[in-house]
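Look over this entry.
=====
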Amino acid sequence: MSPAPAESIRWSVDLEDSAEAAPAFAAGVVFVSTHHGNLAALDAQSGAVRWRRDLGGFGDALAVADGQLYVASSDAQTPQCRLRALDAANGTPRWSWSSQPCSRLLVGVADGLAYLTTAGVIDATGSTHEPARVMALDADTGRQRWSVHIDSPNAQVSAPVVAARTVYVTTSAELVALAVADGSVRWRVSLDGGSVSPPVIHGSLVHVVRAWGYGESAMYAFDAQSGQQRWVSEVREVEAFHAPVVAADAVVVVSQDAQVRGLDHRTGRQRWVRAFGTNDPALPPAPAFSSGTTVYVRLAGKLLALDAMTGRTRWTNPNPTPGDPLGANDDVVYLADTSGVISAIGAP
């Protein structure tokens, strides 16, 4: 087998501040928020800065739809959460929404509504002072359509994922499906014991990872309409901090022992497994991302682009560009290092 080609740096730009939230992508533009509250729109082809705006606080999450950019931010000291809608073309503010008390805000957008999840607030005694919530806001005005409380032992709820008129979220113990019309619960599945990853929708299935310590973890697939469990597959040493990746009908999971596995998303049967040496325990695997039929992951000191169907290495480099993957789009992966440099990496 001929060696895989090395990665190619398309461009790099120094934002002078570290980027931590996943970027948002739209029509040749990459939107990035930085640790100290700057928002930048970068040209996807050249990396040129199209516009910048000072948000006055770190953006926890970004989303873009229909020419509008949404920035979710939170202030742990207040605690207060805020969602801002801006014109994606130039960064001009359109509307703003805020909530207090609130410790963390995540966002998803679909069909003219912005869906939010807020982490609850826990007081000094460990009791929940304010429960976690899922909300829907009108995308044009920011007016609240509905809001529902989500019971969670640690007051945490994942970012919302919207598909087929349903909003899916996970807590530390459940997968919950809500109707987009009013937030009513369509179904809920208990996954008590351990922690549960954010949900991923592919076709008619919802995929989550459940991890419960001592290396024990498993991948689950549930029917998106009914919540009925379709399959479960044991995948050891997989953490639930990050959502699994689904590409080309394969569910790809990365384990702490530097192995990457591709499972058939319909059946859970293992299609392939790749081992990449020993991972540094002090540097847990970064989140994997997909674009088209390629999965990108940084493991054992390497940035890898893998074919989701076969696990074959499409490109790699033993001395990769510094930084952790932020996201991927149009077969390009975006990395950010701690100094504030954003790099666009792709096959030569």
Observations:
- Residues 33 and 298 are 21 Å apart (CA to CA).
- The two ends are 18 Å apart (CA to CA).
- The mean pLDDT is 85.
- The chain has no helices and 35 strands.
